[in-house]
Amino acid sequence: MSVLLAMPTMAQSDYKPGYVVIPQGDTLQGQVSYRTDATGKTIGFKRNGESASTSYTANDLSGYGFPGDRNYRTRTLDHADTLAAEYVFMQELVRGTLSLYVYKGTFFVEKNDNPDKLHKLYITKETYVNNYGVTAQRDINHHVRTLNTLMQDCFAMFSKVERVKLAEKSLVDLVKEYNSCIGGAEEQTTFKESKKWFAIKPGLVGAISHTSLNFSATDERYIHLENAEFNTNTYPTFGIALLLNSPRINENASILVEGRYFSNSYQANPSYEWFEFYYDNKIDIKLSAIKLTTALRYDFAGKTLQPFVNAGGFFNIFSQRDYKHTQYVRRTQNSTPTERNRDDENFFGKMQQGIMVGAGTYFNLSKHRLSLEARYELGLDLHDQAAVNRITNALDSDTRTLSVLFGFYF
């Protein structure tokens, strides 16, 4: 809980060494908030040696940035629907004869012979009737037409424009090649060039997990499970993790790929009366599996402590799935019971899927990271649906797991 409460505070104090450029052309050094506000028009700035911060809007500055990292320039964004224009901070990706910007996920280009004219790169959908008389949709690649017009002084670019994707890496490579083609390579600047397009951070992860097993039956064949109260299970897990991200595009978002091994067991001894017969049951379950987790992780600001949240899904791939069930049936409470073996090696499926959410924090230590995380997992049907339910939904099952995870990332 304390980690979650700390997140907004730490995000608000996300200042890094940077600079602001005032309209007169002077550059002021200091600490700059690493994120603009939701509208992309306001940033915070602290002069070196001062603790008080000043808010600047896009109307006040020519731009701002961070050495070796992001750079923003003030640009005029036209709104065709209202015939109005506004000043916003656009992230500058390439500056040259042709400059490339991105604003709220949309890309723009600007040619230096008309620096006040931004060209939006976009795709729209068009509905049409194909040769078979079926209504379908196709893409209208407005960005291709725009780029071909702006790059017509370099014939070699035409075939490459046809294949370009509306993605940062593809567009950065295209604009850089065009600027070089027309002799502007020495005058162009590519921002964030020192940052990698793709990075992998490996780690080791362990956890203490606490799991409950639940069944809900609508068929008398599984009434013993409906009446069973299985013990909750606390057990250790361990494995490896990979954090995959693109620092060049977004340092805060990454994909978590994790594999952990676990082994646990459950017992229950349900007793009940059914149609004037008395039933006593002994159920033993043993499970071992590799848990494969994939999640989207988002890191908040912080130096020593850096909170994060993640959400995704998982698969439990079972190497052991024993289901032992002995049933004792009596006609009266005092009669000798008849023993029945109800073991079923195919009762559990080979794989279980589920969803997960978690929150935690990194402890940044030099080049390495320690992590502490609380995670909740909801596992869907544990039993084999095809073998059990057949026609009707006779049985539901789920697992619910709370875990505390410890990680070390290299």
Tally the helices: what do you get? Answer: 6
| Average pLDDT, all residues | 90
Q: What percent of residues are in strands?
A: over 45%
- Ranges where pLDDT stays below 50 over 5 or more residues in a row are 1-12
Gap from first CA to last CA: 27 Å
Q: What structural class do the secondary elements suggest?
A: mainly beta
Q: What kind of sheet is the major sheet?
A: 11 strands, antiparallel
Shape annotation: elongated
Q: Encode the helix/strand succession as letters.
A: HEEEEEEEEEEEEHHHEEHEEEEEEEEHE
Report helical residue fraction.
Answer: 10-25%
Query: Any idea what the radius of gyration is?
Result: 30 Å
Number of strands: 23
Description:
The protein is mainly beta. Helices cover 12% and strands 56% of the residues. It is built from six helices and 23 strands. It has helices at residues 2-12, 142-150, 158-163, 168-181, 223-226, 385-388; strands at residues 15-21, 27-33, 42-47, 54-57, 63-65, 71-79, 84-95, 98-103, 106-111, 119-121, 123-129, 135-141, 189-190, 199-217, 233-246, 250-268, 271-274, 277-299, 305-330, 338-341, 351-365, 368-379, 395-409. The strands form three sheets. Strands 1, 2, 3, 4, 5, 6, 7, 8, 9, 10 and 13 form an eleven-stranded antiparallel β-sheet that branches. The protein has an eight-stranded antiparallel β-barrel with strand order 14-15-16-18-19-21-22-23. A two-stranded antiparallel sheet has the order 11-12. It starts with a helix and ends with a strand.
